[in-house]
Write a structure and sequence with these properties.
Shape: globular
Structural class: alpha/beta
Largest sheet: 20 strands, mixed
Helix content: 10-25%
Strand content: 15-25%
Length: 726
C-alpha cells in the first residue's frame, strides 16, 4: 500500500449529503522516474540547466516556489529530478502541493507563459504543472513533442481553448490528467474552459492507463466512447461534467477489459441504462450520478460486477425495486441510490454485506419497515433513508452499528419513542436527523451521552415533556468554534482487506461527508414540548443554529442566552414565553436571523447592535411588546423615544450648539475688527492722513487705466481695445 498515490477526484452531491472520494492511483505512477540507487550522482547537463532557467524567465512566481533554482546543479532544484547515471532531467514536478484554494490560486500559483525552450529536456518522462494559473492560454502544441513522456498532469492549471491534437503524439503516455474542474463558479474561470471537438488523437495513446478530462467540454465529441474503447490498457476513465452528448445503448465490442474506475457523473445524459455498462466485470468504482438514466437495476448485478467497491447512481430516474443481488456484492463499500424513483421495500438480505460503510437510499419512494438485517452492517458509518415512505419503529438491531457517524431517518412515517439505545450504543454519532416523522413521548436524556454530536434535528414530531437539562453534556456543541472541520471517513483499512493483492489500483480509501459538518445545530421545533428553556442549554457555546419554535415552552428567555456568542439563527417563535427580551441578547453580534414572534413577551424591544436590523416580523404577536420596529409605542403619556431617536436628538442638539457658537464668534470678530481699524483712524491723525493719500493714489491709477481703453460694440459683445491700437 505504501507505493500507492492518493488522488482526489470529483464531488458527488446527494441531496443534503455530499460525498467526496479519493482514489489511489495505479502503482505505475510512482515507478516512472525512480533513479538508480547508489551514492554516485551525475551532474545535470548544462544545456538542460540553461533551458530550465530560460523556462523560469517566462513564468510568474508570486510565492517564490522556484527560489531554489540557482547554482550549477539543477538536480538540487525544487521539482527537478535528474537521472543519477546520465544527468538528464527526467522529471519536472511543479504542481502546487497545496489543496486547491481559490485565494492561493490567484495569489500564489505559478503562471505566465510556457516557453518552448523546455523541449531541450529530451529525456523528460514526467511533467506536472497542475494547479498553476496560466490565465486561459492554450496548451502549447509542442508539448506533443516529448516522445518519452509517460506522465502529464495539467489539471486545474487555467488553460483554455481547444486541446491540441498533437498530444496524440505522446505514444509512451501512461497518465493524462486534463481535469478542469475548479469546484467554484466564477466568471474568472469562464475564459479557462477547455474543449475538444473530437477525441481521435486519443486513439494513438495505446499505452494510456489513466485519463481524466473532468469539466472539459466534450459536447461535440460524439466519438468519445468509440475512441476510449480502443485503449486496451485503460484502467481509469473520468469524464465528469463534460456535457457528453450521448451514451450508446450498446457496443459491438467492449474493450474495457482492465477498466477499474469509470466516472460519467454530472453529464445530464438522458437515456436508458446501457446494458454494456454492467458487463464491465473489472470495475471497482462506478459513478453515474446526476444524469437522467432511467430503467431498472439489473437483477444479477452481483454476478456482472463482482468486485465493485463504489456504486453511485444518485440523481437519476431509476425505477423499480432494489434487487436482492445488491446484498450479495461482497466487496461493496459505498452504495448511493438516492434521489431516484425506487419503490417497494428495502430488501432484508444484508447479513452478507459486511463491508458496506456508506448507504444512501434517501429521496425515493421506498416503503415498509427498516429490515432487521441492516443491524448486520457492523462497519456502517453513514445511513441515509430520508424522504421515503418508511414506517414502523426503528429496529433495535441498528444498535449493533456502533460505528455510525451519521444517521438520517427524516421525512418518513416512523413511530414510537425515540430509542434509548441511540444514546447508549451509537456513541460515535455526530449527525442525528429524525425530523418529520411521528415519534412521540419524551426526548430520552440518554441522547446526552452522544458527546460527539454536532447536529441534532428532532423537529416536526409529536414529542412531549421537557427539554432535557442534561443536554449540557453534549460536549462538542459546548466548544466555541466558528468553523467545524468536515467529517472524514477513513475507509482505507477496509478496502485493503477486501481487495485482491494482484489488483493494480485500489478504490475509495477515503470518503468524507461535509454538508452537515460545517455547523453546530439543535432543532426541536414543532413538537409538544413544555416547561422552561433550561439554563443548561445556554452552555452549548458552539451553537450556530437553535430552533425551539412551535412548542408550548413557558417562562422567560434566559438572560444567559447571550453566552451563545457564535449564534447566527435563533427561533423561539410560537411558544408561551413571557417577560422582557433580555437586554444582554444585544451581545449576540453574529445573529443574522431572529424570530420571537407569537409569544407573551412584554416591555421595550432593545435596539442596540444587531437588534436594530430586525423587522417587525421578528416580534409580532406579542401583545405587550413595544417599541421600534413595532407600531406600538412604549408608555401611556407620550411616545417614548427609542435609543436610536435619543441618539439623533443628542446629535441635533450638539449641532445647534455648534451653530450658535460659530455665529457668536463671527459677530465678535466683526466688532473687534471694525472698531480696531476705525478707532485708529479716528484717534491717530498721521494714520488717517496716510490712509487718505493711499486711497487717492489708487483712484488716480484706476482712472488712467480706464481712459486708455475704448469700447467697441460688436453685436451683443463688448470688446475693449487699448488706445494705442486705435
Amino acid at each position: 500500500m505504501s507505493d500507492l498515490v492518493l488522488h482526489h477526484t470529483t464531488v458527488l452531491k446527494t441531496g443534503v449529503t455530499r460525498l467526496s472520494y479519493w482514489v489511489l492511483k495505479p502503482r505505475f505512477v510512482n515507478h516512472i522516474t525512480i533513479p538508480p540507487s547508489g551514492d554516485s550522482r551525475a551532474v545535470c547537463i548544462e544545456r538542460e540547466r540553461q533551458a530550465l532557467l530560460k523556462f523560469k524567465e517566462g513564468l510568474t512566481d508570486p510565492s517564490n516556489l522556484l527560489s531554489s533554482w540557482v547554482g550549477h546543479d539543477c538536480s538540487r532544484w525544487r521539482g527537478v529530478v535528474c537521472n543519477n547515471r546520465t544527468g538528464h532531467v527526467v522529471k519536472l514536478d511543479l504542481g502546487n502541493p497545496r489543496p486547491f484554494n481559490i485565494d492561493d490560486y490567484n495569489r500564489r500559483s505559478l503562471g505566465g507563459e510556457i516557453l518552448p525552450c523546455l523541449l531541450e529536456l529530451r529525456h523528460l518522462n514526467y511533467l506536472d504543472l497542475s494547479k498553476s494559473n496560466f490565465n486561459g492560454i492554450r496548451i502549447p502544441d509542442w508539448i506533443g513533442s516529448f516522445k518519452k513522456l509517460k506522465y502529464l498532469n495539467l489539471s486545474k492549471s487555467g488553460f483554455g481553448g481547444a486541446i491540441p491534437h498533437q498530444l496524440g503524439n505522446l505514444s509512451s503516455l501512461h497518465f493524462l490528467d486534463l481535469n478542469n474542474d475548479f469546484g467554484v463558479s466564477s466568471d474568472y474561470f469562464l475564459r479557462q474552459k477547455l474543449d475538444a471537438n473530437n477525441l481521435q488523437w486519443l486513439s494513438l495513446l495505446s499505452s494510456l492507463r489513466f485519463l481524466d478530462m473532468g469539466r472539459v467540454n466534450l459536447s461535440m465529441a460524439t466519438d468519445w466512447l468509440q475512441v476510449t474503447n480502443t485503449l486496451p490498457l485503460l484502467e481509469e476513465l473520468r469524464l465528469a461534467h463534460c456535457q457528453l452528448p450521448n451514451v450508446p445503448a450498446s457496443l459491438p465490442h467492449v474493450n474495457f477489459t482492465r477498466l477499474s474506475v469509470l466516472d460519467l457523473s454530472s453529464n445530464s445524459i438522458e437515456s436508458k441504462m446501457p446494458a454494456w455498462l454492467f458487463n464491465l466485470s473489472s470495475l471497482l468504482f462506478l459513478d453515474l450520478s446526476n444524469n437522467m438514466f432511467n430503467g431498472n437495476l439489473p437483477e444479477n448485478i452481483d454476478d456482472r460486477m463482482p468486485e465493485l467497491n463504489f456504486l453511485s447512481l444518485s440523481q437519476n430516474q431509476i425505477e423499480g425495486g432494489i434487487p436482492l443481488s445488491v446484498c450479495k456484492m461482497k466487496y461493496l463499500v459505498v452504495l448511493d441510490l438516492s434521489q431516484n424513483q425506487l419503490s417497494s421495500r428495502i430488501p432484508g438480505c444484508w447479513h452478507d454485506s459486511m463491508v458496506i460503510m456508506v448507504m444512501d437510499l434517501g429521496n425515493n419512494n421506498l416503503s415498509g419497515e427498516i429490515p432487521d438485517s441492516m443491524g448486520s452492517l457492523l462497519f456502517l458509518k453513514s445511513l441515509h433513508l430520508s424522504n421515503n415512505n418508511l414506517s414502523g419503529e426503528v429496529p433495535s438491531s441498528l444498535k449493533n452499528c456502533t460505528s455510525l457517524v451519521s444517521l438520517d431517518l427524516s421525512g418518513n412515517q416512523f413511530t414510537g419513542n425515540i430509542p434509548v439505545w441511540i444514546g447508549e450504543s451509537l456513541t460515535s454519532l455526530r449527525f442525528l436527523m429524525l425530523r418529520s416523522n411521528m415519534f412521540y413521548g419524551n426526548i430520552p436524556p440518554q441522547l446526552s451521552l452522544l458527546s460527539a454530536l454536532q447536529l441534532l434535528d428532532l423537529a416536526q414530531n409529536n414529542l412531549s415533556g421537557t427539554i432535557p437539562s442534561s443536554f449540557s453534556n453534549l460536549s462538542t456543541m459546548a466548544v466555541l468554534q466558528r468553523e467545524v472541520m468536515p467529517v472524514l471517513y477513513d475507509l482505507s483499512g477496509t478496502i485493503a482487506k477486501i481487495t485482491k493483492k494482484n489488483r493494480t489500483s485500489v478504490v475509495v480509501p477515503m470518503i468524507y461527508l461535509d454538508s452537515y459538518g460545517e455547523v453546530i445545530s439543535l432543532d426541536l421545533s414543532n413538537n409538544n414540548l413544555s416547561g422552561e428553556i433550561p439554563q443548561e442549554l445556554t452552555g452549548l457555546f458552539g451553537l450556530v443554529f437553535l430552533n425551539l419554535s412551535g412548542n408550548h415552552l413557558t417562562g422567560m428567555i434566559p438572560g444567559s442566552i447571550s453566552r451563545l456568542q457564535v449564534l447566527e439563527s435563533l427561533d423561539l417563535s410560537r411558544n408561551q414565553l413571557s417577560g422582557v427580551i433580555p437586554p444582554s441578547m444585544t451581545n449576540l453580534t453574529f445573529l443574522i436571523a431572529l424570530d420571537l414572534s407569537y409569544n407573551n413577551l412584554s416591555g421595550p424591544i432593545p435596539l442596540e447592535r444587531q437588534f436594530s436590523t430586525f423587522t417587525n416580523s421578528s416580534f409580532i404577536g406579542n401583545h405587550d411588546l413595544c417599541g421600534v420596529p413595532l407600531s406600538k409605542r412604549c408608555g401611556d403619556e407620550s411616545p417614548k423615544v427609542g435609543s436610536k431617536d435619543r441618539e439623533e436628538e443628542r446629535e441635533e442638539s450638539a449641532d445647534a450648539r455648534e451653530l450658535i457658537l460659530l455665529c457668536t464668534s463671527i459677530e465678535l470678530g466683526f466688532v473687534v475688527g471694525f472698531w480696531g481699524f476705525c478707532g485708529v483712524l479716528v484717534f491717530k491723525k498721521p494714520c488717517r492722513i496716510a490712509y487718505y493719500r493711499f486711497m487717492d493714489d489708487m483712484k488716480e491709477r484706476f482712472l488712467s487705466t480706464v481712459e486708455r481703453k475704448t469700447p467697441i460694440y460688436s453685436g451683443n459683445n463688448v470688446i475693449f481695445i487699448y488706445g494705442e491700437d486705435l
